[in-house]
Recover the amino acids of this structure.
């Protein structure tokens, strides 16, 4: 190539070639400076392509740029990043065979902020050492109500006052009766967790355990009214006593992301306020949060993404939260031909924000609030957007207003001025959601398996198509469509949903495969005003773990047609639950379904 300038391990092509080429630096040398210089050069000279050659690229936070960020559905704070794609347009990163190996916490490998037309191809993201505690049960002793587990990475595990901790921190200070060592740790340098927030897998077949066996390791035994204990009994063996309400079985594996400190600090990819982002052939093996989180974005396309375990690693968890997640987005979100497995939360969640009204502050102004602490800093409204007003007590909408301006008072409170008057309009106990942040959502040709929580959860009024997917062994529901203004504050009603030609293999007998309906306070249990509308479940194949198939309430226009119902190998017959639990719904059609399960009927 003419005009090539070799700069350390970075080969910069001539501007007319429109490409920058990055070579692996070798060993565990920090690759962050190479990426930062390449992006700075591309931005300054209008270069539209960066090619990252195959190989391993260790990325450390020490020389990484940083900014304070409010990452939706994560813990907020100062975050460093290896690939800061900020205020850029028209860039393609070709990275087939390139693997980023991240080190430490409060670190986001890829950030795409305030950018347009960004494509990333073939990149793999992992952490050099996993950010979770993992143990395999080797033996149990009913007499002492204890079990012994072999811990992965025992060098990261310590026991202090009969309690287990793990992480990357100063163990000597922590064990030396200096509990303040927990709070003196610097981000990007140290982190510590406890074995709370536990997820269980059967290592014999790689499937998750059902909800009855998904209890967190605890520090207190309420039955015997005494503290649970942990003691070291070998180089990598530890005995847990009274740590669970039941005894696990040998071969069961637990992974814990902990609750001693924030546990959603390091997503793999963060998209913010960007348009036309494409992820093609991207693999995410691990992250200290979600795989990809997008907020206030327009048009995101994901194809052939793999959120999965690295082969031969011995690990049992990929991302510590959702594989993908989108909040207050517009346009379309398309996910196709991808694999999502072993996450500690959903494969995808698409939603908006339900923002409670704090007070009317003027003839055309109201003060609003972002109700969940992990929504802080979100740009809830922009001029020209329409906001819908509803009551929190019954989730019933009563009107709309158009935004003239929105002024943030701080990270959680804001004041909206509307084009129309609000005096005499706003009712006590109201919340707002944004009618212009309702993307279309397409999820086709994907496989979701062996994850905590649900396979999919969404609440968008855009056109939704869920087709030709395999949903295998989620701990809870395969698909959940809700809308909430009292806990997660994730809006809102769906208006056009098609779920067709999918295969559902259920795992937990206590969970419905499909669940449609808002998260209601008790005050709304008698309300029959529809919330969702036009949901079609057609031509799917269900392999059940119990008679529970679908639960729905407050839906107008619900179809359940031409589906095939079978029993999975985990099927638990009986119980009082209806197969189709349908309440306060209108215009319901149930027809043409084939049931191959004895004594199961589809009566409402």
């Amino acid at each position: 190539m003419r005009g090539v300038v070799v700069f350390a391990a970075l080969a910069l092509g001539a501007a007319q070639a429109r490409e920058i080429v990055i070579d692996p630096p070798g060993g565990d040398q920090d690759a962050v400076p190479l990426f930062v210089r390449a992006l700075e050069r591309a931005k300054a000279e209008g270069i539209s392509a960066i090619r990252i050659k195959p190989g391993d690229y260790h990325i450390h936070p020490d020389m990484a740029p940083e900014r304070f960020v409010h990452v939706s559905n994560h813990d907020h704070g100062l975050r460093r990043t290896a690939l800061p794609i900020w205020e850029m347009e028209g860039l393609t990163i070709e990275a087939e065979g390139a693997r980023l190996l991240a080190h430490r916490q409060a670190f986001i490998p890829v950030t795409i902020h305030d950018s347009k037309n960004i494509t990333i191809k073939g990149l793999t993201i992992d952490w050099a050492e996993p950010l979770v505690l993992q143990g395999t049960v080797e033996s149990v002793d009913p007499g002492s109500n204890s079990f012994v587990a072999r811990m992965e990475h025992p060098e990261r595990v310590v026991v202090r006052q009969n309690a287990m901790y793990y992480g990357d921190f100063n163990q000597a200070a922590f064990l030396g009766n200096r509990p303040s060592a927990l709070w003196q740790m610097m981000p990007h340098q140290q982190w510590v967790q406890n074995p709370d927030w536990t997820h269980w897998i059967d290592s014999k077949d790689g499937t998750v355990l059902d909800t009855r066996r998904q209890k967190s390791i605890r520090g207190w035994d309420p039955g015997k009214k005494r503290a649970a204990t942990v003691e070291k009994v070998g180089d990598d063996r530890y005995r847990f006593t009274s740590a669970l309400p039941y005894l696990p079985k040998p071969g069961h594996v637990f992974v814990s992301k902990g609750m001693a400190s924030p546990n959603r600090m390091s997503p793999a990819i963060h998209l913010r306020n960007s348009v036309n982002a494409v992820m093609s052939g991207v693999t995410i093996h691990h992250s200290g949060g979600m795989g990809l989180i997008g907020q206030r974005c327009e048009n995101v396309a994901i194809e052939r993404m793999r959120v999965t375990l690295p082969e031969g690693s011995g690990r049992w968890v990929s991302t510590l939260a959702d594989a993908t997640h989108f909040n207050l987005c517009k346009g379309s979100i398309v996910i196709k031909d991808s694999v999502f497995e072993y996450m500690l939360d959903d494969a995808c969640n698409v939603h908006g924000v339900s923002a409670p009204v704090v007070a009317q502050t003027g003839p055309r102004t109201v003060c609003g609030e972002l109700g969940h602490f992990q929504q802080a800093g979100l740009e809830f409204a922009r001029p020209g957007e329409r906001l819908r007003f509803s009551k929190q007590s019954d989730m019933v909408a009563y009107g709309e207003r158009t935004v003239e301006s929105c002024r943030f008072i701080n990270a959680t409170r804001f004041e909206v001025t509307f084009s129309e008057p609000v005096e005499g309009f706003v009712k006590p106990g109201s919340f707002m959601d944004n009618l212009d942040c309702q993307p279309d959502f397409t999820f086709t040709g994907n496989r979701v398996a062996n994850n905590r929580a649900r396979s999919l959860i969404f609440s968008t009024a855009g056109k939704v198509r869920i087709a030709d997917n395999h949903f295998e062994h989620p701990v809870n529901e395969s698909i959940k469509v809700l809308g909430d203004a009292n806990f997660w504050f994730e809006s809102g009603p769906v208006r056009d949903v098609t779920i067709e030609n999918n295969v559902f293999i259920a795992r937990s007998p206590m969970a419905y495969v499909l669940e449609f309906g808002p998260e209601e306070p008790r005050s709304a249990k008698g309300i029959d005003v529809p919330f969702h509308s036009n949901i079609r479940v057609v031509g799917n194949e269900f392999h059940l773990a119990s008679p529970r198939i679908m639960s729905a309430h407050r839906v107008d226009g619900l179809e359940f047609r031409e589906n095939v119902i079978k029993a999975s190998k985990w099927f638990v017959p009986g119980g009082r639950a209806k197969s189709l639990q349908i309440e306060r719904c209108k215009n319901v059609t149930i027809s043409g379904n084939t049931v191959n399960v004895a004594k199961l009927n589809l009566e409402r």
